[in-house]
Design a protein that fits this description.
The structure holds 2 protein chains of 2 kinds. Chain A contains 14 helices and 11 strands. Chain A has helices at residues 16-28, 45-55, 73-86, 100-105, 113-128, 164-173, 184-200, 222-238, 242-247, 252-263, 267-272, 276-282, 288-301, 316-331, and strands at residues 5-10, 33-36, 60-63, 91-95, 133-136, 141-145, 156-161, 176-179, 209-218, 284-286, 305-312. In chain A, the strands form 2 sheets. Chain A has an 8-stranded parallel beta barrel with strand order 1-2-3-4-7-8-9-11, surrounded by 8 helices. In chain A, strands 5-6 form a two-stranded antiparallel sheet. In chain A, 49% of the residues are buried. The radius of gyration of chain B is 12 Å and the shape is globular. Chain B has one domain (3-90). The longest helix of chain B is centred in the first third of the chain and has 17 residues, at 12-28. The model of chain B has no long low-confidence stretch (mean pLDDT 96). By secondary structure, chain B is mostly helical. Classes of the chains: A alpha/beta, B mainly alpha. The interface between A and B is medium-sized, with 18 and 16 residues.
């Protein structure tokens, strides 16, 4: 079994210098990949990645994830290709379908997500290969777009996926698959679907970086790990449809109660409604030993990269230290 | 204040722990708006170069921590038994 790669996700709701400091710390702690989320409500993902590019030396980084809708894929390709000049060979593109609620908030109708992601990635690859893009797609069209500069190397593309069709397509066209899940049964299903796509494309599973993009919280005190994970899990539960909750044997009435509390801004009530079953289903949290056990189970299923996603822990700096000293060495 | 001079008042064995503590204050502060960009970039450069626990790195952290979290930073001097440093900062050295 190849050594497991470790990635870390940061949300640019904090200024660039805090995230760049965490990025340096993550690099020094043995992380291989850095993922920055893309949401219009936070700071710009590419500016944040530029800061990470300047102040790190070897970590690979990219969007975790962007979508084809918010900006034209030509501009996404331009931004990633320019970042690749700041940190040659260390940049990847992470692209998914986007979040329906978020896109609707800015008036974007998320039609044909599979076609949109596929076409955007096709445009990205052609543009960064120096080719002219001229096509009439289901979602996008181009009439001869071309970069006036060269991209020095091929840039890997990771596809963010949750549903079966997107997972299959991710395996088929992606250099990596970002599976947005934490529970072994969800990861198992996702890996199976991605492998279907990999097979269809005539590739080997070793050709694709199968990545578990988890909600993660570590602390030497398990209660503190749970406390940090609880708000994140509350929002995941609130956004999950009933079949997903039932699959994890989560009381739907309890989830409705939680959703209602969040809707009216009653956070104490919402947090109190988070059950151990919810935490188990939607996060990896606990002591370093507990986390090692859970990560090892995911590695057995077939992941090649494990992403430590929000909240990471009660104190991000201390949590990165803990992961770097106790967890990563176990897998290297 | 002459921050490199202030750091001379820190015993060598306390540079590492002080660096960790100051960096923690800086990264957890809610007073992000008080951080000058030039100082933030200096801090990042020292971190990237691996010199954040050296005298010059701690000097940058000291300036940043006293800018964004002056009370916590002064309290930390007391907890770490850095009385000379605390006095020098109070005196505006």
């Amino acid at each position: 079994m190849a050594p497991l790669k470790f990635g870390i996700e940061f949300v640019p709701k904090e200024p660039y210098w805090k995230l760049a400091a965490y990025a340096i710390q993550a690099e020094n702690s043995g992380f291989d990949n850095l993922w920055i989320t893309d949401h219009y409500g936070n700071r710009n993902v590419y500016v944040t990645l530029a800061a990470a590019a300047i102040y790190t030396n070897k970590i690979t980084f990219g969007t975790g994830v962007t979508n084809p809708w918010m900006v034209n894929p030509v501009i996404t390709a331009q931004a990633i290709a320019t970042l690749n000049e700041l940190a040659p060979g260390r940049v990847v593109l992470g692209m998914g379908a986007g979040d329906k609620t978020t896109l609707e908030a800015v008036g974007i109708d998320m039609g044909k997500p599979l076609a949109a992601v596929r076409e955007a990635i096709d445009m990205f690859r052609k543009l960064t290969a120096g080719e002219k893009v001229a096509f009439q797609g289901e979602v996008f069209k181009a009439a001869g777009a071309k970069f006036n500069f060269k991209t020095a190397n091929r840039i890997l593309v990771y596809v963010g996926a949750q549903g079966p069709k997107m997972l299959e397509m991710a395996g088929k066209i992606g250099d990596g698959v970002l599976i947005n899940a934490s529970h072994p049964s969800d990861i198992q299903f996702a890996v199976q679907m991605a492998n279907e796509g990999i097979k269809q494309a005539g590739k080997s599973p070793a050709d694709v970086d199968i990545t578990a993009y988890t909600s993660f919280s570590v602390n030497q005190d398990p209660a503190k790990a749970v406390k940090a994970a609880t708000p994140v899990v509350a929002f995941i539960v609130a956004g999950s449809p009933a079949p997903v909750l039932e699959k994890h044997k989560i009381d739907v009435a309890k989830a409705d109660e939680l959703r209602g509390a969040l809707k009216v801004g009653d956070f104490p009530k919402a947090l109190a409604a988070v059950t151990p079953e919810m935490l188990e289903a939607f996060s990896i949290c606990g002591t370093p030993d507990t986390c090692i056990e859970k990560i090892a189970a995911l590695q057995k299923i077939g992941i090649s990269q494990f992403v430590v996603g929000s909240p990471i822990g009660t104190n991000v700096k201390n949590s990165i230290d803990l992961i770097g000293s106790k967890i990563i060495p176990h897998f290297k | 204040m002459d921050y490199p001079k202030l750091v001379e008042l820190v015993p060598a064995e306390k540079l590492g722990p002080l660096s960790d503590q100051l960096l923690n204050f800086i990264l957890t502060t809610k007073n992000e708006g008080k951080m000058p960009t030039k100082l933030a970039n200096a801090m990042l450069s020292k971190m990237q170069q691996g010199s954040i626990k050296s005298t010059i790195g701690v000097a940058v952290l000291l300036e940043a921590a006293l800018t964004v979290e002056p009370e916590k930073t002064m309290a930390a001097f007391g907890e770490m038994q850095l009385a000379q440093l605390a006095e020098a900062v109070k005196g505006g050295m």
